[in-house]
Amino acid sequence: MLFSIRCLAVLGVATALSAQDPIRFLHFSDTHLPRPASERVLRQCLDWGAKNHIHLSLLTGDITEFGGRGEAWARYEAVFAGGKFPNLPVMGNHDSTWDGIFDKVAGKRRLPYYSRNQDGVLFLGLCSGSMQDPRPSFGQDQLLWLKRTLAATKNDPRLLLFLHHPPEGSEWAGRYETIRLQEILGGRSVVAFMVGHGHGLRTGSFGNWPWIMGGSTFGKNAGYGVGELGCTGLSYRYHFEDPKKEIRTTFSRAMETPTEPEVGFVPVKAGPGRTSLRRAVQSYAKNGGLKLRWYVDEEKEPRVSTRGSSEYKKRYIEDIPLDGLVPGVHLLAVEAVDKRGKNRWALQRFLMDAPTEAHRLGLSWSRQVQSAFSNGFALNQGRLCLLGKDGQLFILDAATGKTLYHKRYEMVCAGAVTAFGDQGFVLGLGAVLLAIDIEGKQLWRRSIGAPLAARPLVSGDRVIAADLRGKMHAFTLGGRPLWSRQVADYAVEKGPVALGPDKLLFGAWDTKVRCLSTKDGSELWSRRSRGARGVAARYYSPADCPPTVADGRVFVADRKYELTVFDTQGKELRPENPGTRGFFKDVAALSSSPSGDAVYLRATKGYLRRMDPKTLRLVWELRLPVGRTSTPPAVSQNHVFVHGERDGCCYMVDAKTGKLLATWRVQQALYPLAPLLLDGKQVYSAGLDGSIVCLGFAGD
After folding, report:
1. Most C-beta atoms within 10 A of its C-beta, which of 225, 395, 449, 602?
2. CA pair distance 464, 483, nearest whole angstrom
3. With contact defined as beta carbons under 8 Å apart, do 16 and 231 qualify?
4. Band of pLDDT at residue 259, cut at 50, 70 and 90
5. What percent of the residues of the chain are helix, what percent strand, and what percent coil, each to the nearest 5?
């Protein structure tokens, strides 16, 4: 043995496997390649595993440090090449940002979540990393895949899930993200969740099931875990690189055969009302003493609690009070808890209607599809075009929401879409730039060589696209190549913006914002943003939100949430009034008005602000729960629309006065990664839950 064995956890399992050798697996996490210390631990561990009957290994995320399209992924492949057993990796937040490696992890499977049946145990690899964003999410497409996968399995196999983020904690947008997973897994034989992210050796519980965090391959907890799943249970031991580490047992309990109560919604005739919602659930508890708790949205305390002692199926009908809810989509969650504390969830969406007023938002139509949206979508000639993270393409009638065209490419995809003159749309489909007409028919298709996360720019007589290797490519409107250049030293995540007829601006993960000529891609100037001038500069690059232009000035937000202002020649401008400098420090995203007379700032401390681009002074600020999400506001001349960070709400604000005019909840409590889209008297929203919503308002 190269490392001394230290026991982290021992789990007992009630249901026996068949009479066969135990399944033995290695657990690595947070390797952050390329890192020599991690490579050393991995190679030594793999050598040991080859001699000790290991069936497979798991790598629970943060495989790479800054994404891995170059050296980092090459090092991962080199370490595991020719191994005696397969390695099953999943995405972490470091793998999902910078030059995100979704396509690399997905490989021939096409998607970054998957299953593997190993001797009757179903290993389920979940992707908790958000597309080009460091915060965790699952997405509608992944959870529907999980439902289908479990429905297709026979004999109710034992499940062992592995993912990067622990399935609880404050990093998730809200409880909705994780109780959806609990609802799907309810009643299943879940052994445990293997997780990473914290670089520590910890355990916790998620609903009725345990999770185990597997340290890291460098730093103070450098090492790896060894799991053994046999007829007597699952044992998990951690092998430290440091032989002086003391033995610690942090978790020990027996795991029982699933006996959670059953619960599910049943139809009732009464629908939503102004003050209450009548809903029924049918539940069953073998152990009696059932308690039902009815929650709305993210509330920590139930609105109604119901007790029942019957051991037979029973229908419970409740009137759920709806006081205090804003108009829009809401969630009713019912938790059934038996007398032993075992629980089961059932979830149901409902719509809270509202009276129509002249300036208020009102629902025109809404849809929910089997995909998830995390990038911009586009409108052209009354057609709405959206591209999901799983490669599903939708073209909808913008007036009704009716599907006019749908195609499933079944591939991991950032979902970047742009309107293409009066012809149709241009979209980034993996490493391909695709132009289609408004009916969905292909006009032309060009291979880029690296995936596209940034929305293409249609400027004048050309189409310009930037990829995750820092290259930019220009084509004629007919798809003929014009030029291709390496324009940044690292990934370009957000699309370029036009600066006049023959210039463009963009930010990249190499710390700089640049101005290029659209004629040949030559660099006119480049500057570092303020937040990217210190230690660990790449973390703080101006790459999360596109720059914006107002009154002949360039406004840039970076990941350190600092605002930098340049003139169009690249000279940095600083506010003359010391009293205005405070709001330069907490800017997550920004956008400008159509006329260029205002810049609107999304502030990390929970404000929407309007700035005068001439004086660089604050005009007004409004307290709103917008947070750190880098999604820019959507702006017309008279209105500003902005997403809440975690509450699912769309806020409508008077552009001149900063007065809040209306609120509509367009999705559940998820991060709003896809920007809102405005069109005269309508605003469109698309979310990670597959929701597509069109709201009408009094136009400009």
Report:
1. 602
2. 9
3. yes
4. confident
5. 10, 45, 45
Lowest mean pLDDT among 174-188, 342-356, 549-563: 342-356
Classify residue 54 as exposed, middle or buried by CB count within 10 Å of its CB (0-12, 13-18, 19+). Answer: buried
Q: Which residues contact residue 658 at a Cβ distance below 8 angstroms, ignoring those fewer than 6 apart?
A: 608, 610, 619, 620, 621, 622
Query: Helix or strand or coil: residue 551?
Result: coil
Q: How many residues does the chain have?
A: 700
Instruction: Round the average pLDDT of the chain to a whole number and report it.
Output: 89
Separation CA 120–CA 158 (nearest Å): 7
Only one residue has tokens 């809200």, namely 174
Task: Look at strands 442-447 and 432-437 and give their pairing.
Answer: antiparallel
N-term to C-term CA, the chain: 73
Rounded CA separation 74/59 (Å): 16
Q: Count the Cβ atoms, other than its own, within 10 Å of residue 205.
A: 13
Q: What are the tens digits of pLDDT across the range 276-309?
A: 888 888 888 776 678 999 999 999 999 999 886 5
Q: Strand 462-466 vs strand 457-459: parallel, antiparallel, or unpaired?
A: antiparallel
In this structure, are residues 648 and 641 in contact, taking their beta carbons and an 8 Å threshold?
no
Counting DSSP H helices and E strands in the chain, the numbers are: 6, 54
Residues in CB range of 418: below 8 A, 6 or more apart: 376, 378, 425, 426, 427, 455, 456, 457, 458, 495
User: By percentage, how much of the chain surpasses pLDDT 70?
Assistant: 91
Strand partners, 282: 264, 315
